[in-house]
Amino acid sequence: TFGKSGNFNILIEELLGPSLNDYFKLKKRFPLKDICMIALQALDRLEYIHSKYIIHQDIKPQNFLIGRKDPKVIYLIDFGFSKKYKSSRTGKHIQYKKLGKLFGSLAYSSINGNAGYEQSRRDDLESLGYMLVFLTKRYLPWNKIKITKNIKEGKDTIEEEIYKMKKSFKPEKLCEGLPEEFIDYIKYCRKLEFEQDPDYNYLKNLFALILSKQNQKNDLKFFWISKKEKNLVTKTDENNNSKRD
């Protein structure tokens, strides 16, 4: 529910379970089937908020939470950096321009977002691609970037070094060892124009195709739904609540 209390606006949301990042920290390797099912739900979430003229701007594993009542459902949270990319009244799209600052996570930001440019729908989708690669391979090349001579001498910042590395990494190299559909996904997102309407169905079909090639189905039987994993969910949830307390 939502409403007002005195001078404050109040929003009450459903209490959710652990995030995808919580599972990653438990050193759980995400099966390829689960990655594809995560991708399909994440794309559904982004397509929905984009249909409301909103971009998220902070796509990362910490912001995808598993439902407590129904662990088959993955939720997208934290709209602290979200903004309107198009006016609901006029339909006018925001302009592409240099902002000079990054919104969201440095590791998962799009190349243009990393460079400090205004973001749009394409950037959310590109960020999701990096997140999926990370969950599958357990790392991104720029996550452990070394302090270079340029950084030491003050010529570059960490942000600039990561931007250069991210831009230089071709999709084929970034997605090495993964199904070719991951490469197609990254290529497509990087080629999208600033105001272009993304083809969400095309992107979803890429992951549906991986499932088909693996003789798997989008049956929502995630690895965390088993009895053993449910206990881990409860334990992780209790730890998170304890930290918040």
Describe the structure.
- With 245 residues, this protein is mainly α.
- It is built from ten helices and six strands.
- It has helices at residues 20-25, 32-51, 111-114, 121-137, 149-152, 158-168, 171-174, 180-191, 200-213, 227-244, and strands at 2-5, 8-11, 54-55, 64-66, 74-76, 83-84.
- Strands 1-2 form a two-stranded antiparallel sheet.
- The longest helix has 20 residues, at 32-51.
- The model has no long low-confidence stretch (mean pLDDT 89).
Major beta-sheet overview: 2 strands, antiparallel
Question: How would you classify the helix and strand content by structural class?
Answer: mainly alpha
Number of helices, where a helix is a run of at least 4 consecutive DSSP H or I residues: 10
Number of strands: 6
**Cα shape:** globular
Helix content: 40-55%
Rg over CA atoms, rounded to whole Å, is 19 Å
- Head-to-tail CA distance between termini: 23 Å
Q: What's the arrangement of strands in the largest beta sheet?
A: 1-2
- Average predicted confidence as pLDDT: 89
Order of helices and strands: EEHHEEEEHHHHHHHH
**Percent strand:** 5-15%
Residue windows where pLDDT falls under 50 for at least 5 positions? none
